[in-house]
Structures are given as structure tokens and as C-alpha cells.
Amino acid sequence: MGTLFSNFRNEGSEGSEGSEGSEGSSGNTFMVSGIAAYAGDVTSPLLAQALVTTRGELTRGFAKGLGTPNLTLSQVAAEAVFGRWSHQVRGELYLFEMLSGLRMESDRSGGATLYSGDPKWSVSIKRPAFDTDEHTLKEELGYVLKMATLRNDRMAEILTQVAVPKSFFAMVLNLRPDQHRYTYEVMAAALMLSAAAVMQFKHHFRVRRPAERSPLVQAVLLTPGHASYPAGHSTQGHILRSVLTRLVSAKEELDDQLERLADRVGENRIVAGLHFKSDIDAGAKLGAELAAYFVKKSEASRSEKPEGPSSALAWLWAKAKAEWEEQ
Predict the structure, then answer these.
(1) Quick one: which of 297, 166, 293 has its CA closest to 241?
(2) Cα 320–79–170 angle (5° rounding)?
(3) Domains and CATH numbers, the chain
């Protein structure tokens, strides 16, 4: 399960915010003189020296001093500020908003509940029965071993879905980076929320993986370095399914396909030998509930803070919504 905290990714933005690959030259040229080198993503002493000497010639002969500076003292207008920030900066703003006010509490039965006061919302996850009952554990393991027979059929999906399965949702919705830039950004923000929330539950429950229970499982992928329950891929799939359904006002046929996709992404992790069925079911519940929280946050009024910039999430939701209304 990929996390997105330190490198907020928005595939729909990359074409206009410094990504390379569209100028028709070799990768070596980009490393030396491309926008990535200018931005400091890669080090290019040659470009730095070239910029210094070029500036010297361009400004030679001008009167000493500041030239004609922009002495505007006012702030950037609140309604225009989000469009000026890079998508990485917006990602940090989204994450701060989404996590503000969230808290987790455990109960006497070993379960846990994630709460929010604004908006009022909660989701509760119970400790899995197979973690306390040997009979249930044997049933769960038996199901994992049964699903392993599908590995030949599902291997391409299993391997490509190690990464966040955005491409599969893009296929169903016919997403284009040029037309759905902010839809991609909504997806990235929702995935940041799902990663933060599911890791808190995983840490709370500390459930061992199938391959740690039986040597017959033999997972086809390296066992991730975190707990099994709830399943992160299932959480990701179902938050995307529910958020996108709301965003695009999906009709029944499209909603059904998105739900089947989210279910299949989760099921593939059982086939791979990485999860129990209960992991997937709990992840699906968590993803759907997190989507409801995300939408509530995103649809909040943008006029609640007239003294400063409004909600970054509300701005993003409105921009993404407009992409579908304009089609």
C-alpha cells in the first residue's frame, strides 16, 4: 500500500508544473538543462553557470539599482491563492485540513473508533474474530489457500496493483490528465486520508499476515512492513469508488463498475497471499466511511473564514466538480 505524504502526486498537474518528457530531446539533456534542473530537483552546475553568464549579458548596461520593482504591498487575493500554489503545496494543505480534529479511541473489546467533531462523523472497526478464535482462523486461512488457485489468472493485476490502482479507475471513468486535472488531485488527496487512517487502525490491531500463520500461503509479493488488518488496498479502492461516484454523479451502471473494481482490487490481495478476507471487508467499510468524511469536508462552505483563504479542500472539490459539469 503506497503512501503519499512526502510526495503529493497529481498526474493531472504534471504536464504544466515542471515534469519532463515532452520536448523531444534525450533524458541526459533534461538532466543538464531541463526544468527539473532549474527547479533544483536535480543538480546541474552547467545550467547554473550558464544562467549566471546569460543574466550578466542581459542586464549589462542597465542603470544600477532595483530597476522597476513591483512594490505591491497587498497579499495575493484569497480567491486566487490556491491556483498560484504548486500541487505539492496544496497537498500539504489538504492533508492538514483532513487530519485536523480527528482522534482515535479504543474500546474494552479491543476495537477502535475514529472520530471527528467537524464535521460530526465517526467510524468504528472491531477486532477481527480470527485473531481470537482458532476455528475462525483456520477458516480464514483455508479461504486464502483456496484463492491462491487464481494466481495465474490474476498475476498481472496483482503486480500492477502494488502501486495505487489509479489507472484502473481512470480506465472506467475515461480520465484524461488534460481534462480531469483536479479530479486526479481529488483522488490523490483522498488517498492521503485513507493512508493516514488505515495505518492508525493497523497499528492499533497489530494483526499478523497470512504467511506468518501458515507456511503453505507463500505470498507472491514481499509481505509489507505493517499489520494486516484492515487492508490498505481495500480502503484505497473503496474511498476512491465512493468519492468518485459522488464527484461525477455516477449513474447506476458506472457506480456498479466502480464498486466491482474496488472489490476486485481488494480480493487480489487475498489471491496474492497478503490478506485475509476479514481484512478486505474491514478495509471496504473504512474506505466507504472515510469517503463520507472526505466529501463532507470538501463540500463545506467556503465563506466560513472571510478573514483569510478559504478551505483548500472546498476549492479543490469545486474545481473538480466543474470538470464534469463542463463535459
Answers:
(1) 166
(2) 15
(3) 18-77 (no CATH), 86-325 (1.20.144.10)
